[in-house]
């Protein structure tokens, strides 16, 4: 299983071209300004292709993005290079794993966006990821992230989805079929991606399984406690509504204590 390998990275930007990264950067920046008004430097774990990082750098933050996928980091560096020099100077990227990264410095806040925390499949990985976030921020800083919300996953259940996207070069069709493992709080999302080259009509097929952990608020409280954080705020991703059993994505703000 190669999750977010170099091949997937090539199509990721096209598959998520319709994602509202700009609105999401506004949402994250506004929560950071409320909970850490002095914050200027951010470390982002699982930064992927660097879109949030670049948009947050445009909003004045200095962002160091960390990801374990070299292909994703290539995209992120290429994106940074398209920005004005002052924005690009506020961006840095490093290869590293959320469960073990040691950047040798601290930041005002840590962020991890688009369910990267849900990619930590078991308690050991979650604990290690929270510890990584904690050792990269000083006391008083915040750790902001979003996860799959257990009550909604069990109420709505993951369904089969198809997504099609195209640009001038390729057409991508992605089928997502999920298997729920309720005793482990896991969902295996099995992706089958067909990439059709528009010039020679050849089709590549890629298969990936993304194992996602859904989390319940008391678990987040426990992992926060174990890692030197306290839960300060939670809300539905983007809408800021109170989470309920229809809220798939919940955003948490933890305070480093
Ligand atoms: C759904 S993507 C999100 C990327 C980016 N945050 C965004 O919003 O576009 C998940 C990302 O997390 C990264 N990732 C997953 N597990 C990781 C880990 N243990 N350490 C570092 N990066 C990880 C993947 O390589 C991928 O880039």
Describe this structure in words.
The chain has 257 residues and is of the alpha/beta class. The longest helix has 15 residues, at 21-35. The relative contact order is 0.15. It folds into two domains: 6-148 and 215-256, 3-Layer(aba) Sandwich (Rossmann fold), CATH 3.40.50; 153-212, CAC2371-like domains (S-adenosyl-L-methionine-dependent methyltransferases, Single Sheet). It has helices at residues 6-15, 21-35, 51-58, 70-81, 85-88, 123-135, 150-156, 217-227; strands at residues 41-45, 62-67, 91-95, 107-112, 137-149, 161-166, 170-181, 186-197, 203-215, 229-236, 249-256. The structure holds S-adenosylmethionine. Residues 4, 46-49, 51-52, 67-69, 72, 97-99, 113-116, 119 line the site of S-adenosylmethionine.
In short:
The protein has 257 residues and is an alpha/beta fold. The protein contains eight helices and eleven strands.
Task: Name the assembly state.
Answer: single chain
**How many angstroms does the end-to-end distance come to?**
37 Å
What compounds sit in this structure?
A: S-adenosylmethionine
Which runs of at least 5 residues are low in confidence (pLDDT < 50)? Answer: none
Give the CATH topology of the largest domain.
Answer: Rossmann fold
Number of domains: 2
**How many DSSP-defined strands?**
11
Second rung of CATH, namely the architecture of the largest domain:
3-Layer(aba) Sandwich
Overall spatial form: globular
Kindly report the average pLDDT value: 95
Strand content: 35-45%
Helix content: 25-40%
């Amino acid at each position: 299983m190669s999750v977010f390998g170099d091949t997937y990275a090539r199509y990721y930007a096209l598959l998520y071209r319709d994602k509202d990264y700009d609105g999401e950067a506004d949402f994250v920046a506004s929560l950071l300004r409320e909970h850490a008004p002095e914050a200027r430097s951010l470390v982002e774990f699982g930064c992927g292709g660097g879109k949030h990082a670049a948009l947050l750098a445009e909003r004045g933050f200095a962002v160091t993005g960390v990801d374990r996928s070299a292909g994703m980091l290539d995209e992120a560096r290429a994106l940074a290079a398209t920005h004005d020099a002052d924005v690009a100077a506020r961006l840095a990227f490093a290869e590293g794993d959320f469960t073990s990264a040691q950047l040798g410095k601290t930041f005002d806040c840590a962020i991890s966006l688009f369910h990267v925390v849900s990619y930590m499949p078991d308690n050991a990985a979650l604990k290690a990821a929270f510890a990584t976030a904690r050792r990269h921020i000083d006391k008083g800083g915040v750790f902001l992230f979003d996860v799959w919300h257990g009550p909604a996953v069990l109420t709505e259940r993951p369904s089969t989805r198809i997504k099609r996207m195209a640009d001038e070069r390729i057409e991508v069709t992605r089928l997502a079929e999920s298997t729920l493992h309720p005793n482990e709080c896991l969902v295996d999302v099995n992706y089958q991606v067909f990439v059709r080259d528009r010039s020679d009509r050849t089709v590549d097929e890629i298969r990936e399984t993304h194992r996602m952990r859904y989390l319940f608020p008391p678990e987040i409280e426990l992992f926060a406690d174990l890692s030197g954080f306290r839960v300060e705020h939670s809300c539905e991703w983007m809408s800021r509504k109170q989470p309920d059993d229809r809220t798939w994505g919940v955003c948490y703000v933890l305070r480093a204590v």
